[in-house]
Amino acid sequence: MLTHSQVWTALDRLAERAGMSPSGLAKRAGLDPTTFNKSKRITADGRERWPSTESVSKALAATNSSIDSFVQLIGDGARSLQSVPLLALAQAGSGGHFDESGFPAGKGWDEVALPSASDEHAYALEISGDSLRPTYRDGDIIVVSPGTPIRRGDRVVLKTSGGEVMVKELKRRTTRTLELQSLNPAQADRTLDADDVAWIARIVWASQ
Prior knowledge:
alpha+beta; 434 Repressor (Amino-terminal Domain); Umud Fragment, subunit A; nine-stranded mixed beta sheet; about 20% helix; LexA/Signal_pep-like_sf; transcription; LexA-like
């Protein structure tokens, strides 16, 4: 049975994931800033006050979140937050930020608290510009997990032996080649020789 505490906890986690306080989330959603405050969750006579479906819907829209992601934030099924290394995607191609295995290394990394990827080598990249629209927008953060298995259809980050870092969807992978689909329809798809790929890692979460 869904409880009063679970719903409010999910809203708190939704705000935290978006880097906001409950009142900040309410304001972004176009609601009264006190809508999600803890003082509003119990009435003066001690009764539980639940958030309306309209306010939850507006909060999801304000954070570009789906109802499925909100359900994941409820109760024991919620993913815990952890601090992971953060780097701007535009910087990822410059030298010194990754080791030979594609793990974060060197200086220039920041930190951000995001849902746990269950991978000690997980890291986050911040998207800049519009080159990955409509899949990712300027300011979106993606979590990359080098330890997560990759399948056809997964979105991935990869680095070529020439130093180019790109974000694509894996269409097909053989022992000889990788066929990659661009996330932006205006950009051409790519086919790379397997020997030209230094490392490849799966995107497991995005702040949408």
